[in-house]
Design brief:
With 625 residues, this protein is an alpha/beta fold.
Length: 625
Amino acid sequence: MIYDRFQQEAIDYINQGCSVIVSAPTGAGKTAIAEHILNECIQKNRGVIYTAPIKALSNQKFRDFQGQFADNIGILTGDVSINPDAAVMIMTTEIFRNKVLDEPQSLKKYSWVIFDEIHYIDNPERGTVWEESLIFLPAQMNILALSATIPNIKQLADWIESIHHKPIKTVIEEERPVPLHFFFQSQNEVIDNLNNIRRGGHGRPNRLHSLINYIRQKEGLPCIYFVFGRKRAEDLAFELYSYDFLSAKESAQITSLYESLLERFDLKHEQSARVLYPLIKKGIAYHHAGMLPTLKEVVERLFTSRLLKVIFTTETFALGINMPSRTVIFDALRKFYGRYVRNLKTRDFYQMAGRAGRRGIDKEGFVYCRINLQRINYEDLKRIIYGKPEEVKSQLNTAYATVLNLYEKYKDGLFRIYPLSLHYFQSHKHEQREALKLLEAKLKILKDSGYIYKDGLTQKGQFAKSVYGYELILAELYEHNILEQLDEFGLGVMAAAIVFEPRKNQRLAGLSKNIRKLKTACEELYAGIKHKEQRYRIYPFSKPPYFHLSSAMEAWLRGTNFSKTLQFTDTDEGEVVRYFRMAMQILREINEAKVASLILKEKIKETIRVINRDIIDAEKQLREG
């Protein structure tokens, strides 16, 4: 195989036994470097772990690599466990972090770990998982870290070198194999130079039809249209209903493919699949997190068949999922970050824009930005598109489970761990002091609340160290003997409440008497936790339980079919699937706690068995896919 310059450079370092961080634009071909390691490790009978930030990407990599490496590939994501003793294990970074802390001995046979999308270390909710994985990495493991373009890659490498005392090489590629050409729709005109945008005045509104006609004339299809809202993705797709992008032959092909995929994934009778049908026939679709995972997969397969010409999608489609097109359109250049709507980061913009231009098919990729100068100012626009990508910054926020695992190993010596973090490496003295104060506060609350006694963990502490992210509320339920008293229904409802996050103004449906009792008990325990966290100045607070999915979960546990179950909630169907799967993951973690009783473990196994059927069964989706 003939490699590009940066691919060859990285492979040469790998062959010399060095760890490597690669920074290159989306679509540049970073996966080829990972595939080299996989090939080498399989031939030499060495283990390798491939971590990805989201389950959808883990699943896609499993499918891709299985096609190449057959039975040498396994996957472990919390939803799915297939071939867990394979030479190459694909897992979410969370699963890897948990293994590194809880059962490092299980990683002895692995000589490499590949961190895909390592710039995720910058993610406010989950970045800490990458950081902890790197800090506690077993000594025998080499690293290949793959990243979108980041300016402080050298700093990241220096930090990893400083804690593991072995060389880590950096490989940087600035050029895209398929260059991007930018266009802007402003006041319903399409222009290819930002300087020519007319400022001031209330010009004509941008029309979707004008833009699509322009792109069609320029032979710019297929096209991925990025939208920052699920409903908007669907509305825009139906706005194009009057268009037909396919010939009669193509329409027949896509219809036949769609029907066979619906059959395969048991979606024939799903209302949401029927709603999409008239769009699919015309070469149009939408794709977002509110959809059933199986239906999203059907849309992805239609897109790779090249019969879909326009797809309206939210940004998860940009994250590593290998779906390039000739053109990318941005509906807007502002999105919701955590708690506020803000201008897009340059790095996020290019992660999405990088889907334009198919290597080996297109000479260039086209990126269209729909601009409304009433909503975004000209200078911000320039910074997003032509600015330097943002540096990756630590988001360290150590979970209680991590603190408990570290205390078990190091006792109060765990404070010596913080100086190994990227946060310490990047921060000023006052930020370092604040981070240490937070760590001290977390240890203090755990000691004062009976998780730690003298030099070891109590039973409650042993329980809490297994349940990442929801430690305090679950450990209190365990200590107050509430978990033990719950039946299979109660366990399912409780797990769904622990993981569920309601949307703004989402309604809470009527609850049965037993569930109201459980809700009251949970809320009382949570109030005590929050009060303590306030007192110790621990922020952000632990997540409260929300019982919005209780009636739906009860219905599902009774054996109700999925479409009827949806009548018990106003949550999107894809979200219901996701939360039911997350509920099972939490139950599995409780089940793995050594101190959980055999009776509780038996009930949990039964609850999981009943939840994990039909559309909720992620493993079935992956095996059948």
